[in-house]
Amino acid sequence: MTDVAAREGLTFPALPAGLDTPRVVVDLARVEANIGRLQGAMDARSIAVRPHAKTHKSLRIAGMQVAAGARGITVGTLGEAEVFAAAGFDDLFLAYPIWADGPKAARLRALRDAVPRFAVGVESAGAAKRLGAAVAESARPLEVLVEIDPGNRRTGVATPNGAVEVARAAQGAGLVIRGVFSHGGHAYHLDAAGSAGADEVRTLGAAADALRSAGLEVSVVSAGSTPTMITSSTGQVNEQRAGTSVYGDRQQWVLGAMPPEGCAVAVAATVVSVHDERLVLDAGAKALTKDRAEFLAGHGAIVSYPELVIERVNDYHGIVAAPPDAARPRLGEVVAIIPNHVCPVIDLVDSVIVVAADGSLEEWPVDARGRNG
Amino acid sequence: MTDVAAREGLTFPALPAGLDTPRVVVDLARVEANIGRLQGAMDARSIAVRPHAKTHKSLRIAGMQVAAGARGITVGTLGEAEVFAAAGFDDLFLAYPIWADGPKAARLRALRDAVPRFAVGVESAGAAKRLGAAVAESARPLEVLVEIDPGNRRTGVATPNGAVEVARAAQGAGLVIRGVFSHGGHAYHLDAAGSAGADEVRTLGAAADALRSAGLEVSVVSAGSTPTMITSSTGQVNEQRAGTSVYGDRQQWVLGAMPPEGCAVAVAATVVSVHDERLVLDAGAKALTKDRAEFLAGHGAIVSYPELVIERVNDYHGIVAAPPDAARPRLGEVVAIIPNHVCPVIDLVDSVIVVAADGSLEEWPVDARGRNG
Q1: Which residue among A103, A280, A315 sits closest to B20, beta carbon to beta carbon?
Q2: Fold of domain A28-245
Q3: pTM to 2 decimals?
Q4: Residue B236, number of CB atoms within 10 A of its CB
Q5: Assigned fold of B3-25+258-365
Q6: Contact yes or no for B272 and A372 at CB 8 A
Q7: What span, in angstroms and rounded, lies between the C-alpha atoms of B146 and B254?
Q8: Average pLDDT over residues A92-96
Q9: How far apart are CA B297 and CA B10, in angstroms?
Q10: ipTM
Q11: Percentages (nearest 5) of helix, strand, coil residues in chain A
């Protein structure tokens, strides 16, 4: 897919008037469609959905996901888990190999005691030992899923034998094995988007088989990542943890994981400066981030102006290259920008403007914003 | 300067024990030295200091800057101005060409009425007209500085004649000209760091001369940016607005703008995963950002482990390439990371841990975090 394709074809409903820019705007009808699309596709395969809440960090959006049929939610940090636990979410999976030392040990124990169904990731014998020690005085044992590396080369054990070793260490530390999980993050590249799901199915299946051969019970085989949400949901996989799919973004659309109308979030920005060959928007790195996959041109797609490229972002300035013959917004005009990667954009703001299908507006908090540890 | 140089030689005082990572740690002695270094250099040239608060977004740090001799402070958004105004800061310059429409017009008027000395940037006749209309019913006129482009190609008028035109439009809209300002942002490149300050002196001086020739009063000639803070503080320049210099970061050190001991902020992170050729830290894009100048290798410098490179950051994972023979931290070890660019890192957190010279710790709020519009 070319850079031009990465900018063309994205739409967003008309922005409400009078926004105080920069402002994150969420289109509720698109969010509902995205939630229904994932849930429907997984229901058809009898695969449970456990969406990752790091994308929206919102109690209300998570509530919509559970109401649509999600088994529970996935979180990436203790801080996120605490926010959702405090609001009564009773089935949380912390898909992260946390090191349960010092303050984190106490926080983990409190979560284990408070949340009826709570599990965490583990991928080393050392971390398993710490987890066991942290919850030793908890009334209930802690469930864990062993993380498998499907070729992403981030966290996770690389071999089925390695998975068995970690699982045995976890058992030895008093933990209960729930299953295995992986994140096919290597799908975030154009040349791997097609194969990463197959990698995930194969490596998760091999790890699950190895654990069972070693006499361990494996009830959950959980795959992650939005680009692989369809392809990895085969074989032994019985749980899906896609996160970004609820909001969508430019990157997911270019990767082929979402339809263009799947982009449910835009950053509204005002044109504050106009020059011959460039414009400047009041959305910079503190509104759009500098997240830019190598296959994307610029720092977000400006809806209605596909020929413009946000070439640079400083803290409060987005500098837009505007070819002389290209359609361009006027000074003071408010434009909608589809962000490259929506997750870190949401983490910058305390609230979002949610536009309902009838045009009514509400301000929703980003409840777990900044809870990144 | 090479990539290796970009990583070597950076130090940071020993981290306090028991941090709940990721956590931003501020070394107070280094901050005090940085404030003193800028103020001393400008005092020696009889140049007023008006540091940019977007770096720290902290009332206490801004108070230290004013106590050390700063004339007032610079802000980049109405939101930042509101936070500092509410705390009693009485001399604010909003160095941004805001478009004073809708909610922003009301906010601007309230600031004009509340802050004894308040000025904003302007760089187009259109924006000047809006500013004038916004404060038409204010008891006091609004002061403006005309923004000059010193070659940065962001905002600002390109020619002395253009500056005169904008100044006359501002006068016509009922605004009072205080002077001219610029931001030498093109200094954030290795090949321009030396010349950008000279560009700024020349263009600001030419614009000031043109305004005076046109019969306009120019009391303030204000230069910005940390890389040019010394070189641009000559000629007619009589005010300096460096921001990053208060905290320092890896980029400023590599650009030659700060000594290595000028890095006063580190992100503390825990090693959560160890593999043959890589480690994973619990500081990812939501702790370090993806801000990386092209002349820097990786997403921050790991103090004490100069051969390690943070090759990739996902939301909660920092993936570190670790050559087989390189010194490396152990699983569970807490490391200090000097961020590439400190400003957006501070905007991610609600508070920082401040370590005083006697080793005592305090948690200080990032008062204007997220106030980016």
Answers
A1: A103
A2: TIM Barrel (3.20.20)
A3: 0.96
A4: 17
A5: Lyase, Ornithine Decarboxylase; Chain A, domain 1 (2.40.37)
A6: no
A7: 31
A8: 98
A9: 14
A10: 0.96
A11: 30, 20, 45
